[in-house]
């Protein structure tokens, strides 16, 4: 298991014990302390005394050479002794003690990549609701694509792949110049129809806190959305079509209501679409422990398409210069 952490002393103290206490016979946790200037070193040393399976890799700040998350993860991967690598972040907490066991069990046959699910905690408020809904919709898209043999991304908070795959494909070398993409770009470039599977048992969910302000969300999404332009062409077309179709539907619906152009028919189509969505999504929402959001689909779905389009433009035109 590999975790890259920069100034995460509080999260490491709170969440790392749950990871170190996993019910699995033989595993190690490699934490890369990436140029931290908080109490991360002290926290890790204290945990090391209690948990011998913890391995600490420390990166120190260099005036001329600025490191990023991909560099930190690469050092962590090199330090890891095992073939199967499981990744998460310092601010994540596993849903159970069986996270490692269930994710590891998916490495059968030709499998080299395992995609997991990482939802946000429900805290109330509309911002939290839309962040959780966007995460849910993204998961439905990338997990279903993987099941259909077309995996195009994964989430670094809950992702596993083999050490052999990493080094055989030169790690992050192809996109080391891009700040983000240690998870989705790696999967996009290395997943095939036969080497990728998913694991969505509730025991394997990795929970974390959503951003609580638009400013912090803006900085996070600016970093994440900028990598989409590096996806394979087919995946870019698929995602663009989804975003465009959703925006056009709501734009035409609003125009019909404003200009009284067949408003009854427009409302009927809107309700029909909502019912179809519920019928299609109900089983998946239940599996991903998100049934509380299904009845808010008309509002959340509308905001979602505006949300992803806005951040997609931000990620395309606004450059991010730091990962943490």
From TrEMBL:
Keyword Transmembrane helix (UniProt): yes
Transmembrane segments: 239-260, 266-282, 294-318
InterPro entries: Glyco_trans_2-like, Nucleotide-diphossugar_trans
Similarity comment: Belongs to the glycosyltransferase 2 family.
Name of the protein in its database record: Glycosyltransferase
Source organism superkingdom: Bacteria
Domain Glycosyltransferase 2-like: 2-132
Alphabetical keyword list: Glycosyltransferase, Membrane, Transferase, Transmembrane, Transmembrane helix
Pfam families in alphabetical order: Glycos_transf_2
Organism: Mucilaginibacter panaciglaebae
Keyword Transit peptide part of the UniProt annotation: no
